[in-house]
Specification:
It is a single chain. This protein is mainly alpha-helical. The chain starts with 33 loop residues before the first helix and ends with a helix. The longest helix has 68 residues. It is 66% helix and 0% strand.
Length: 116
């Protein structure tokens, strides 16, 4: 019986039988962003929170602006409707006034035939 051949230690517990193959190592990122290199996680999270707060403020201001525009539009529409209603009421009043005066004239006996 022969003794087992000892295995050379490596990262996986075995070594390639091909001597021309080099041992591979994990990829090292050569280009890291400045934010990742220089700042800690808490600093980045703080910056993110500030940006989110700014964005929320912008959204709130935009919503207020839209609401104000909508309110003005509604006021204008209400004024137009009120003006149309006043105009219609005025025309109706004029028409009813003419009818009433004609009726009163008839009661008094003054018709067009007599008046002319």
């Amino acid at each position: 019986m022969s003794l087992p051949v000892p295995i050379a230690a490596s990262s996986n517990g075995r070594q390639s039988g091909k001597p021309w193959k080099s041992q591979k190592s994990p990829t090292i990122r050569s280009h890291l962003q400045q934010a990742v290199k220089a700042k800690s996680w808490s600093d980045r999270m703080e910056k993110t929170k500030k940006q989110e707060a700014i964005k929320m403020l912008q959204i709130e201001l935009k919503d207020e602006k839209i609401a104000e525009k909508q309110r003005r539009r509604e006021i204008t529409l209400e004024r137009k409707k009120a003006a149309e209603e006043r105009k219609r009421a005025e025309e109706l009043k004029i028409q009813l006034g003419a009818r009433k005066s004609a009726r009163l004239k008839r009661k008094a006996g003054r018709t067009k035939k007599i008046h002319h």
